[in-house]
Amino acid sequence: MKSRLLFGLLAVGLFVFSTNGRSHAQSQATQQHLVQPGDTWIALSWRYGISQETIRAAYPHPNRQRQPVIGTTLPLPDKGRELTGQLLRLSEGGLLATAVSHNISPWQLARINGLPHPYRPTLYRPLFIPGGTEPPRELPVGFTNLELSHITPQPGWALAFRGQTTQPMTITAQLDGMAFASFGNGRFHVSLIGIDNFYANRQPTLTIQPANQPLWAQPWQFVDGQWSYNQITLTGQAAAITQEQIAAERERLFALWSIKSPPPQWATPFQLPITDYLEISSRYGARRSYNGGPYNSSHEGTDFSAYGGTAVYAPAAGTIALAEPLTVRGNAVVIDHGFGVYTGVYHLSSLAVAVGGHVQPGQQIGAVGSTGFSTGNHLHWDFLVAGQWVDALAWKEQEMACWVLAGWGQPCQ
Ligand SMILES: [Zn+2]
Questions:
Q1: Which CATH architecture has domain 143-219?
Q2: What is the pLDDT of residue 262?
Q3: Distance CA 26, CA 284 (A)
Q4: Low-confidence spans in the chain with pLDDT less than 50
Q5: Phi, psi dihedral angles at 109 (to 5 degrees)
Q6: Given Cys at both, which of 68, 74, 180, 300 links 193, Cβ 3.0 to 4.6 Å?
Q7: How many angstroms separate the CA atoms of 174 and 181, rounded?
Q8: In the chain, where the domains are located
Q9: What are the pLDDT digits (tens) for 324-333?
Q10: How far is CA 27 from CA 24, 48, 76, 209, in A?
Q11: Using only C-alpha atoms, what is the Rg of the chain?
């Protein structure tokens, strides 16, 4: 007992020593800051006690209006002590009301913010209110926090953000003009988007528009994906399928996938739709050349090679949105999981469900086959978010289902 206490005291002593040593080293070297949402020039200036001009000088960009890019690192010259606090845009009651609601004197608030007196505050710059444990961030008006699913995303992934607001409100959001599917649950907000695997912009702008409030915008750093290359030779029946048939089937499916049913139906992580397979024979996003042509298309889903008749399961709970034979995709089952998330399994030899039915994770929905545009027994697994094909394996490995659900205020079971 005694020795354990002594060890505890020693450990505390060492910890204090090493903390001191580290902060001393930090003041010597140039520090890096990984840009998070809300890290605007003003916010970083307050946080680190460095002028906006000094921070910007180390991170030049021709557009002076442009905020730091989320996911990039910026050097911090002369980094001082870090401050915690909030940045607030003045609302109805102005500085006086803000001071009262935050239990701070108006004169003190004016002095901290470099204003001559509290009665004529500037409307163009947020007020800094010291305190709390969080670094100051400029979030969309009404948001108390905002988290992104990925700090440096790749094309072909499903992305999301989650946040809480001081009161229920509706929001809309876009990435480079592409709409997120946004859902509110009281003060909880979740927005999802799927990124095409050929998407080329590496610094798109994320915009969030809370109802009746100013638009919030910040650029976001994307990185390149890694793709495999497949050469495909089409012969016989598969080669006979016409572009018109392909387009007609696609149009019908997109009409279905564009319906973004609000409540999430899943309550668990997603699982693979097949457990007994030989290999993953083609990954999502694989660049494809047909009959020696250019690699200008990509694989929309994930292929599992498996014996005909192998059981195919629902990857998560949902409602059957389609269960029928299609020309290109053969016997197909599409599940609506809510939140604009759809999965599809194709080329089945048989169907075990009907439209409108509800399925539970792991429930059998069909069996592996080679119906439709297929060269042998395999399972094609489609995954769509907000009307865009994305990488199902990435969604699963990144545990997106539970991350999104937690943002909705309903953690996974
Ligand atoms: Zn496929």
A1: Sandwich (2.60)
A2: 78
A3: 43
A4: 1-28
A5: -60, -40
A6: 180
A7: 9
A8: 30-130, 143-219, 229-407
A9: 999 999 999 9
A10: 6, 12, 10, 39
A11: 26
What is the Å distance from ligand 1's center to 181 Cα?
26
Predicted confidence at residue 153, as pLDDT, reads 98
DSSP state for residue 276 in the 8-state scheme: S
Q: How far is the CA of 304 from the centre of ligand 1 (A)?
A: 8
**Residue 121 confidence (pLDDT):** 62
Ligand 1 centroid to Cα of residue 183, in Å, is 31
Distance 333 CA to ligand 1 centre (A): 14
* Inter-residue contact 221 to 72 (CB < 8 Å): yes
Give the DSSP H or E segment for 109: helix 106-112
Task: Give yes or no for a contact between 37 and 146, defined as CB atoms under 8 angstroms apart.
Answer: yes
Fold adopted by 229-407: Glucose Permease (Domain IIA) (2.70.70)
- Residue 346 CA to ligand 1 centre (angstroms): 8
Q: Are strands 330-336 and 143-148 parallel, antiparallel or unpaired?
A: unpaired
Side chain identity, residue 67: Q
- What is the Å distance from ligand 1's center to 251 Cα? 18
Write out the residues surrounding ion ligand 1, Cβ under 5 A. Answer: 303, 380
Cα(363) to ligand 1 centroid in Å equals 22
